[in-house]
Amino acid sequence: MFAALVLFAGSPVLAQSAPAIVTPAPAPAVPMVIAHRGASGERPEHTRAAYDLAIDQGADVIEPDLVMSKDGVLVVRHENEISETTDVAARAEFADRRTTRTIDGSAVVGWFTEDFTLAELKTLRARERLPQLRPGNSAFDGTEPILTFEEVIDIARAGSARTGRTFGVAPELKHPTYFAGRGLEMTGPFVRVLRDQGLAGQDAAVPVMVQCFEVATLVHLEQEIDIPRIQLMAASGGPADQPEITYAAMATAEGLAQVATYATAIGVETTMIEPRGADGAIQAPTTLVADARTHGLKVIAWTFRAENVFLPLNDRRGSDPAGHGDLAAMLKRFYAYGVDAVFSDFPAQAVRAREP
């Protein structure tokens, strides 16, 4: 609903020489449900079917991960290595493009979007990334093409027209430092798409909020366009463009104060809010939600999935890793913690769980 989308309106606290006066972020009236790559628990991720299903299930926002084609187009894939999510490995005409790349310090073998033009990528078909956990999704393998960023925006617009509700889009810019090193700078094309679509401000017909695990990209975008910016953080590691910093340090009071100079929200792994013991059982929640709000930052938690393998011990049901546990119980706890939004592969469950 639009009421949920406006939770992310407002400007961040800007860095300045004098001490800033920070207005704590208000608690959410209604937590926002962001469909993580669409309804990816029930359809192959990043496909039109996944996004349309998420819209019909009542999600407020749909999320595309953005990577780059060889000719500089923003395309929608979980990673730029696409053998897990497309049929590229079965395409003989592209066999010679299999290679090894070092991405954010790790060697990756496969086929990469930056070696294909958009026209070539459009010949590929999507497939389920987690077939062992989601065999039902494999029935849709080979039926849908790779989408562009513009096409996901069109899906959100069409969803709004179809349902009478306003849907937002939360793109994640993946590996911008890596792409820049290959001559494919991401922020320029991203800003151009938003300006061309009339979506570069907070009064846009399709609300947009941008997210990234890196820092410099969000700092740059803060100067370019007036949309919410989400600093993503994981329970381990740190931003690829600032290897001297860890996400753990960014989640401290000092770190959050710095994040608030360029971002409006943080998007954090669930265990940064609700830690788990060595056995996977939940432990007492941290103060991260309250700490972030003190610095004027909203808080989004990722990622809520129904399969036992992803759930804390307390919420698992049975011993089958692919079996579904009590995702609703986990979601209700996080809503009680005061998060402003959740990323979920199962948006229908996230919508139901926020009902009184």
TrEMBL record:
GO terms for biological process: glycerol metabolic process; lipid metabolic process. Residues 1-15 form the signal peptide. Residues 31-354 form the GP-PDE domain. One of its GO terms (molecular function) is glycerophosphodiester phosphodiesterase activity. Coiled coil: none annotated. It comes from the Bacteria. The keyword Hydrolase applies. It catalyses: a sn-glycero-3-phosphodiester + H2O = an alcohol + sn-glycerol 3-phosphate + H(+). GO terms for cellular component: periplasmic space. Its EC number is 3.1.4.46. Transmembrane segments: none annotated. Keywords: Glycerol metabolism, Hydrolase, Signal. It is an enzyme of class 3 (hydrolase). Pfam families: GDPD. InterPro entries: GP_PDE_dom, PLC-like_Pdiesterase_TIM-brl. Belongs to the glycerophosphoryl diester phosphodiesterase family. This is glycerophosphodiester phosphodiesterase.
